[in-house]
Amino acid sequence: MIKVSQPFLPPKEEYNEYISKLWETKWLTNNGDYVTTLETQLRNYLGVPACLFVSNGTVAMQLAINALGISKKVITTPFSFIATTTSILWQKCDPVFVDIKPETLCIDEKKIEDSITEDTEAILATHVFGIPCNVEAIERIAVKYSLKVIYDAAHAFGVTYNEQSLLQYGDISTISFHSTKLFHTIEGGGVSCNNTSFQKELYALRQFGMIEGEHVMPGINAKNSEFHAAMGLCNLNYVDEVITYRKMLSHAYDSTFNKYESIIRPAIPANVEYNYSYYPIILSDENVLLDVQNHLYRKGIETKRYFYPSLNKIDYLSHKTICPISEDISKRILCLPLHTDINTEDVEFIANIIVEIIHEEIRAVNPIS
Fold first, then answer.
1. Nearest-angstrom CA–CA distance, 122 and 148
2. pLDDT-based confidence at 202, cuts 50/70/90?
3. Number of domains the chain contains
4. What angle (nearest 5°) sits at the alpha carbon of residue 182, between those of residues 172 and 226?
5. What protein family does this chain belong to (predicted)?
6. Measured on CA atoms in the order 40, 43, 49, 54, is the torsion positive or negative?
7. Position 292 in a domain
8. What's the domain range around 339?
9. Residue 86 burial (C-beta neighbours within 10 Å; 0-12, 13-18, 19+)
10. Terminal Cα distance for the chain, rounded
11. Is the distance from CB of 176 to CB of 189 less than 8 angstroms?
12. What are the residues facing 123 on neighbouring strands?
């Protein structure tokens, strides 16, 4: 079975070298040398003032909401992983969904202002598949209405916009280091912010609300271990190679799909250095998607409906919002295998199957063609 995603693993002996030292120090957690070193290296690699290493990307968003003092309504996107919405709900805030742009799949900044009320306190937008939101327009709106801005940058590791890290935009950006990401720490996440007062608060919130043994605020345990940090230190040495390899595979997909108007790819804006975190395609309708997915599965190829369903349709929401573009695209989008355990021959095999299925669909609708 060709998996839709597979974690990159460094040479075992490199990881073992880090781990063997833990048997000597017995310092396994509580911000040891590996965690602090990883935070420094991430800050340098990503080009951000600070990057706090936490237990996962979901907790990272909860910490961000808490640190910014948000307690009411948060404008957000319906086209994201469920954690974007549940982080808002877990902090006892109300998500307000604004539809997306069909080109980039990110929140439509032109529709944000219509959803702002006196109870709106923040915007939590997702850089979908690592594709940047319109950060300048969102910043203008935030300044105009005195709103905080959080970016769910779970997929945006290493992405730059206008030659600077995408994580530098907004008040706080959060990122995921889950094992399926192009850079991972097995489980983990990061919080990046430019404001030093937020940095201090985030640091305290991460570890029970304590700073140097003093209880300064209510916090939680969002720390991560030396074992996870060790994996991150190993993987950071290979992340540029991983991105280059995924770029090659993405271009191999493109060389086939660019010939077909019925296979749509999200648009990457100008001035973006992309990280090739996923390879999504948008098909003509849900029936075609299901046909493609089933055919590929029978050939031993796993795909993922990512993101599905549109989050504004989740049953447990207290109120429903109509987001027609997100609802439509969520039914037609499919992520294809993209990782270092496949090669260009695999990509060509997958792409050719999809093209053949689409040709069959066309012939079934129009037998003359």
1. 4
2. very high
3. 2
4. 75
5. Belongs to the DegT/DnrJ/EryC1 family.
6. negative
7. yes
8. 239-365
9. middle
10. 34
11. yes
12. 75, 149
